[in-house]
Amino acid sequence: MLELGFFYMFAGLAVISALAVVLSRNSVHAVMSLILCFFNAAGLFFLLDAEFIGIILILVYVGAVMVLFMFVVMLLEVNFVSVREGMLKYLPVGGVIALILFAEIVAAASSGVFSPDGIPDPGHVAQQLNNTVEIGKMLYTKYLLGFEIAAIVLLVALVGAIVLTLRVRTDVRYQNISKQVNVNPADRMHKVKM
Amino acid sequence: MVPLSAYLAVAACLFSIGIVGLFLNRKNVLIILMCIELILLSVNINLAAFSHFLQDISGQIFIFFVLTVAASEVAVGLAILVAYYRNRRSINVDDINTLQG
């Protein structure tokens, strides 16, 4: 009963904050709503016995990705009025497509295959079973190749982001470290006979 | 006990909101990126729900991979956005037509 209450709270707040992301007038408010949405999704993950993923969602998503979003939103000086004009023009077609998608997915979800008779609720795992240990055992054995590919993807994204935003300016003076380190004292100083 | 279909319905709701957000905010690249995040989050909820109800931890591993790809996508997307804004002083999607010639 308590679990059902928490489920409704997390699910309802996630949906409401997702709506706020889509409909908010200000990008900063949209990012804030997205943070709330991720927190509630992490709550849903906790209800599903996926503690490690929930913590990762809060640490990586809320702590890093959303802060990145916030930086960019505050860095760019965006004219929100011109960006938002014509918003209602697309509401009918977008709304119809989204409604059809929603109806289809919900119809598939409630068709009876995923009901308690089809896939019974296995109940929560034992408390001494460590979710992180289980994920680690699986990740470093069966999915080791995928793990390393994920590492390479992150590295490429890191290098790509730096290369894209790097700007070599010609109007400022840079320090040439290797030139400074490799300087020879004999080039700088001359002994003169008086 | 919460049935599996309830989790699937929540994920479907978030997915549809993400899709409608793509249509509504099609001029603002930032909101479009956030809507993609919402869509990926709904996929993650589906994966976690199936992982729990089928008692298979592989679903959580796949959430891990989806999170990795989503994070790198956001990093590169925002970098492109910043580089574009530096050149054109705008992030309006309608202005992004340089390749049309």
Provide an overview of this structure:
The complex is a heterodimer of chains A (194) and B (101). Chain A is mainly α and 194 residues long. Among the domains of chain A are: 1-77, Four Helix Bundle (Hemerythrin (Met), subunit A), CATH 1.20.120; 130-168. Chain A is 68% helix and 0% strand. Chain A contains nine helices and no strands. Chain A starts with a helix and ends in a 6-residue tail after the last helix. The model of chain A has no long low-confidence stretch (mean pLDDT 88). Chain B has 101 residues and is mainly α. Chain B has a single domain, classed as Helix Hairpins (Orthogonal Bundle), CATH 1.10.287.3510. Chain B is built from three helices and no strands. Chain B has helices spanning 4-24, 29-53, 58-88. In chain B, helix 1 runs antiparallel to helix 2 (29-53) and helix 2 (29-53) runs antiparallel to helix 3 (58-88). The longest helix of chain B has 31 residues, at 58-88. Chain B is elongated. The interface between A and B is large, with 88 and 73 residues.
CATH topology of the domain at 1-77 in chain A: Four Helix Bundle (Hemerythrin (Met), subunit A)
Main beta sheet of chain B, described? none
State the helical fraction of chain A.
55-70%
Counting DSSP E segments of at least 2 residues, the number of strands of chain A comes to 0
- Report the sheet-strand fraction of chain B: under 5%
Helix/strand/pairing class of chain B, anyone? mainly alpha
Summed up, the helix count of chain A is 9
Largest sheet of chain A: none
- State the name of the first-level CATH class of the domain at 1-77 in chain A: Mainly Alpha
Brief summary:
Chain A has 194 residues and is mostly helical.
Keywords:
heterodimer; A: 194 residues; mainly alpha; Four Helix Bundle (Hemerythrin (Met), subunit A); 9 helices; B: 101 residues; Helix Hairpins; 3 helices; elongated
